[in-house]
Amino acid sequence: MSEPWIEDPVIGRDAFHKEGEAAAWSQAAQMLGLGLQLTGNGGVLQEDEDVDYLNIPEVPELTPEFIAPWAGLFMQDHFGEPPPFRWLDFPGWSQPIKSEIQNQITPAPDRWWEGELGEWAFGMMPRLYDAVRTSDDPAAAAATLLHVGQFSQYQIVRVVSAALLAQRKTMLWWPTIEVLADGCTSESETIQQISIEALIRVAPRHPGLTALPQDNEPNNGTDLAWTSLIVPGTWTRFKRPSWWRPGEALFRYLQSEPGVDEPNDGTLSAVGADLYDRDDHYRWTGGYTVEDRIAAARDLAQWAAKHSAPSFKKVIAHSHGGNVALNAAAFNDPSIDMLVMLHTPPHQRSQNEWSLIGTKIKRIVAMRPKVDFVVMLDRCWTGLHRTPVTGNFPSGHVRTLKVPVWFGHSVLTDPAVWKHHRLASEVAAEFKHVE
Known about the structure:
The protein is built from 17 helices and five strands. By secondary structure, it is α/β, with parallel strands linked by helices.
């Protein structure tokens, strides 16, 4: 499993004083909350009722720029302990500057989080977190915490910290770019997606992006389609293995569930018994822009026409794949009996657009975890592209099912989570309303 299954997050400062996976992701949630406030996106937190449970400190927006060397000054002033390095010594990929020592560029340490710097960050971060609550300059304390977070032994903390710093687009000192580049190849889909979407904004020609594998499988067959389809989300086309491909774990599970391993009263059929599983299954570029999703919706309509499938029984869509399916229903031809969206970021649509969607999709169910890191960051990144965003889908058009797991952006693609929470039975029960 690439994502952690967290049902009990670690609250407040305890996330910085405990170890383990739940503490790491809970710590990243604290960093995310602080970073969103510093960048003027605190409203994203207010629209998610689950955030209050995490007890994230309130900090003001950081209006002046706060570059990395100032973090060193903050630690010196408040703790009498400067960092065990000088920021100028290691410029990083995006900062080809020379160090102050002998006018030479010094290569950044490899895997610095596994050595002394990682140990230093582990001891310093709890102190900085406490300073956020007690300092007379909580914004500076929180900004310093983000800079130090890039040295954490936990990759999710490093990546969230680096992504938030990259979002400010100030002078990017090491190790911001290196953290994001390393995250592009993470086994965690949440970490990978945060990394790619942040890196592509600040270093679009970075080798870490150009080296991502491409999907060259055929996508233009004309075999008659079956009646249900999976629409993957952003960047998942690069991922191997991919949960949405025929033969992968969740795909196989959906084809057979509910089966002998789960309770079934005989009235529910398998959610994905009719999933299209041939080699020319639908896929799209997985790009992040609005234009990518509009083109993907058009391609979905063309794919359906080629396969003599003017309608689908079920479409199961992940992340922005859900918005691709909604776009296809609003502006193209396919109709859908039921759309199941997993981790899909809600984007604001006009009432007229929702009315068009309602004529094409009989029932829409959105399943989401608590405090999805990628969806929360999407609210900020999408807003930068002048795309209206919102915190929730309109209840009159979409039924939202909140699953009691936390943080990960692909945790709901894990068959074990589906089995534990009987999600397939929930989906099958919803589908009975449109039969």
